[in-house]
Amino acid sequence: MFQAMLLFMYSDELPNFDELTGSVSESLTTNLVQHLLAAADRYGLERLKLLCEEKLCKQITADTVASTMALAEHYHCPHLKSACLKFTAVPENLRGENVFSIRTVAVSMLDKFF
């Protein structure tokens, strides 16, 4: 994470995660970007946070939507949260074993309103 933040600070762009990890795994990249978003929030790097949010919006899958939605809620990322909600609004995206985790996150978000 430190190396990715440092690369951002010198280049003002997201690093190439495939080069950083030596892997082309999209799930690994998503996980790293999620952690980088958390670090950006912690250290007040708003531009990095926005870039991470933008990248995560493009990488939403049935496997990542629950954790990404929870992350969006926790770190106050309205654009990312909206993208997750749009993803879950498509019935075909809610099939399979991930439905339970998506519902769990949605219920916990609703609890905050009541």
Task: Give a description of the structure.
The chain has 114 residues and is mostly helical. 69% of the residues lie in helices and 0% in strands. It has seven helices and no strands. It is globular, with a radius of gyration of 15 Å. It starts with a helix and ends with a helix. 25% of the residues are buried.
Outline the low-pLDDT stretches: none
Largest sheet: none
* Contiguous helical run count: 7
CATH topology: Potassium Channel Kv1.1, Chain A
Number of domains: 1
Rg over CA atoms: 15 Å
Shape summary: globular
Mean pLDDT: 83
Listing every helix as H and every strand as E from the N terminus to the C terminus, the arrangement reads: HHHHHHH
Strand % is: under 5%
Q: Class in CATH?
A: Alpha Beta
**Distance linking N and C termini:** 36 Å
Helix vs. strand class = mainly alpha
CATH homologous superfamily, by name? Answer: Potassium Channel Kv1.1, Chain A
Quaternary class: single chain
Task: Describe the SSE topology.
Layout: H1 2-11, H2 17-21, H3 26-42, H4 46-58, H5 65-74, H6 78-88, H7 99-111
Helix pairs in contact: 3-4, 4-6, 5-6, 5-7
Describe the structure using short key phrases:
single chain, 114 residues, mainly alpha, Potassium Channel Kv1.1, Chain A, globular
How is this structure best summarized?
The protein has 114 residues and is an all-alpha fold. The chain contains 7 helices and no strands. It has one domain: Potassium Channel Kv1.1, Chain A (2-Layer Sandwich), CATH 3.30.710.10.
